[in-house]
Each structure stands twice: as C-alpha cells, then as structure tokens.
Amino acid sequence: MSSRVETIADDHNLCGEGPLWNPATRTLLWTDILSSKTYEYDPASGSKRIFIDDLQSTALALRETGGLVIANRKGLHLWDGPGRWQTVATEHEGEQLVFNDILVDPHGRLYAGTLYWGTGGMTKTGTLYLFDTDGSVRIVADHILLANGLGLSLDHRTLYFADSAARQILAFDVARDTGLLSNRRTLVRVPDDEGMPDGLTVDAAGFIWSAQWFGGQIVRYDPEGCVERRIPIPAQQVSSLTFAGPDLTDLYVTTAADYSPSPLEPAGFDRTAFMGGPLYRIRLDIAGRPEFLARFSSPQAP
C-alpha cells in the first residue's frame, strides 16, 4: 500500500484541526483554531478558499437539515451560512463549555469533550458531554486530562476517546438507546517516547487511526489496540485526520505550526524540527466511513 504524503495546502495553519468530508459538496473542510478560519478544499478542481472567517472552530459536524455544528472555546453553535450562526450552549450547570472535539452518533446525538488548559498547563480536568436531539445534555465521562479525538466501532457499541495528556485512547461501552457510556477502560497506552494521541478516526475495517501530536506520525491500531502500522508525517505536531474523497480512500491530515515548549513532550523531542502547518493527503487502499449527521433542527438551550 502506498503511503506517499502529499502537501495539499500550506497556509501555515497555526493549529490546523477538525478535518471533515462533506459528501454533498464533495469538499473537505478543516479549521485553523488560532486564526479563527475554516477552509474548504475541492479535490476535483484543486481549488481552496476560506469558508468561514467570523467564528472560531475547534471541531465541525454536518447537520441533517444542512449547515454545520461548530464547537469552540465558547460553546456549541449552529452555522447556516456566512454571518448566520446561533449559539446552542455556553455552559452546563455553571461550567463554562470549552470544547475541543465532537462526534455525531447514528441517532444524530452529539458527543463533545471539554478541556481546560492555560499557559501553565491544565487548570482543571475536562468532561465528555452528550447532547441529545431534544436539546438535553448529560455528562457521560469525566476526569479527562486533555479531551481529544472521538470515534465509534463498526457496530457503534464502543466509543473511542483520546485523552492526550494521559497518553491513552480510552474505550467505553455505548448504550444504543440512550448513548450513555459505561465500562471505561484503556485501549491504547502510548509509550512515553512517542507523541500524544490527538485526533482519531475509524476506518471501514474497524481499525483506529490516531494522529500523534509531538510524534510526527499517524498510527493505525486494530480493535484490540495493537499497532498495525505507522505512517511518518513530515511535521512534528500532527493534530487530526479524516477519510475523504468519493470512495473515502484519501486520508487528509492536519498539522500545527504554533509551538510552545511543553512538559508533555516526549523524551528527546527535537525542538528544532519542522512543527507543521500544512494539510497533507495520503491515498490508500483502505476506506473510511461517512460521518453521521447531527439532528439539531433549531437552537435550544440544553
């Protein structure tokens, strides 16, 4: 299988994140968190444009009625076009919702993880929330050090959730009717001499692909958490990844140029190496899976 890494866009993204394939438009969306820009790339024409520049995004999801769910450091929002967005939630039980990553399940419900990190490190632990289609919200996991990538197993009965600072990919059993989680366990424990698990996605064979921040690679794990393969990426800060293209066999990888020394760096980390900023693509003979559509029809306070 070819693992040639192509540079698709080089906008010096300070923190490229949240890649999302939109099958309706056959375009890829991704965000630069720190510049508050969301980009759109059309693989057929090779054209690229700034898609959103008035709303910061840490993660994106498609909605059943059209438009996007946008998560960011100030909560959860519904976006219906340029200048047309409304806030759904900014806090829950007095807790400010500082979101990092989100995932829609087959029922249109939305999982969303919070993180609370400042220049000095973690200020408090994060939480995983579940937003239901009626606008209600529940806490489904807590005591997360640095909430990151989310994914579901092929049968939708297991949720994968990366806790970057803990160097773990967690697994939970999912109650199909309610979306509630149980049986929390560690599926992958990333060694101290590798990068941290960041964004993740699950392919059509049920294998988990994990971007490694500070690791300069992406790693494919089998459903039992064993390493199946590694693909080097020419950037140290690899943030997220998604399958895209008409057959979902193109893997797009986001990276980040902005760098600050961190106690979370692996031993021997090369601070003089190229940190990142481009969007990359790898053409594979492995397919991904379509993303589910969020069923938020109107903004409601949870």
Features:
302 residues; mainly beta; disordered C terminus; 4-stranded antiparallel beta sheet; Neuraminidase
Question: Can you put this structure into words, describing what you see?
Answer:
This protein has one domain: 6 Propeller (Neuraminidase), CATH 2.120.10. The protein contains no helices and 28 strands. The protein is globular and about 45 Å long.
Tell how many strands the DSSP assignment holds: 28
Question: What is the beta-strand fraction?
Answer: over 45%
Sketch the topology as an H/E string, one letter per element: EEEEEEEEEEEEEEEEEEEEEEEEEEEE
The rounded distance between the terminal residues' Cα atoms is 46 Å
Number of helices: 0
- Class by alpha and beta content: mainly beta
Helices, strands, pairings?
Elements: E1 5-9, E2 16-22, E3 27-32, E4 37-42, E5 47-52, E6 59-62, E7 68-72, E8 75-81, E9 84-89, E10 91-92, E11 95-96, E12 99-104, E13 110-114, E14 116-118, E15 121-124, E16 126-131, E17 137-144, E18 147-152, E19 158-163, E20 168-174, E21 181-189, E22 196-202, E23 208-213, E24 217-221, E25 227-232, E26 238-244, E27 250-255, E28 279-283
Antiparallel strand pairs: 1-28, 2-3, 3-4, 4-5, 6-7, 7-8, 8-9, 10-11, 12-13, 13-16, 14-15, 16-17, 18-19, 19-20, 20-21, 22-23, 23-24, 24-25, 26-27, 27-28
Summarize the structure.
The protein is mainly β and 302 residues long.
